[in-house]
Amino acid sequence: MSLHILGTGSYLPPTVATNDDLAKLVDTNDEWISTRTGIRSRHVSTDEPASVLAAKAAKAALENSGVRAEELDLILCATVSGEFIVPSMACLVQREIGATCPGFDLNGACSAFLFLMETAAAYLSTGRYQKILIVGTEQMSRILDWTDRSTCILFGDGAGAAVLEPGEDYLGSHMTVKGGEEVLRVPTHKGISPFWTAGEEHPYVYMNGSETYKFATRSIPQEVEALLSQCGVEQSQVDWVICHQANRRIIEAAARRLKGIPAEKFLMNIDHCGNCSAASVPILLDECNRKGIFHRGDLILMCAFGGGLSSTACLVRW
Ligand code: UT7
Hints:
Bound molecules: oxa(dethia)-CoA
């Protein structure tokens, strides 16, 4: 499939909540959070909803790419914490950045950025689209149960974006879904139907942490091994790994399984971002891009997992 990454962008809201700050809200402490997850702080939005975070990341990606908003042919967004169900996040971003092209959203939870890449690559392959903006954005703080210490300490707010054009740099992808809501879900509001008689569940993140952990540590290496063998690429040829930032221990466990990829190739920003769900992969991608870590021709392996349950991996040439 066709894809070349022209540029990236990200935006983190300025307010930072440290583990000590959260210890004032729930029965937790910096030592527990940092040793179990690798998280020391996360950004939290105080007045910018997910669409504003998205538009700021999108503008940064356009600038990094040297592309004007009017040149975009399509906008694809992903979020689980947008302020509206209608209009879509893509419609709000289109207006905010001054684009005129169509756009739509997809829901892939923490794997969403890889689903966006896959969708964009398919559209670019048709030859009908020349410039596609993809954005993952989350205001996770609005859908967390701030009395549940097992989930509220894990997530952060932010947005990441990339501008894509046709090219030969999407070397392959591998995606798996194991459908079900038992392990990880965010219910919607039950509404006020006078006919509805069944119960209500709080519209906040619910996660069985240990089941998610087991799923992640098993599925990431499986996806990566399947992807690399499909692409005919050895682990030793991979230059960098951008993995969904859910837990440092999950990434380290995956690195131990994938023995051919040295542990230092697994890039991380979880210490200051936490888990930004659909925004996690593109925020890290942009941070590394701006630090000048990537060189032309580098093979970047991206992998993610999350609600669905889903696990995904793709290989991109920088
Ligand atoms: O992007 C979505 C994907 N999400 C993930 O990948 C998350 C995957 N899961 C995890 O990262 C880990 O399971 C957690 C970090 C969520 C939990 O770590 P754990 O080592 O699996 O802890 P646990 O759930 O087994 O809990 C151990 C203990 C429990 O106490 P008891 O029952 O042993 O007395 C918990 O109540 O830790 C307690 N605990 C806490 N203590 C202090 C749970 N949360 C906290 C907390 N602070 N924030």
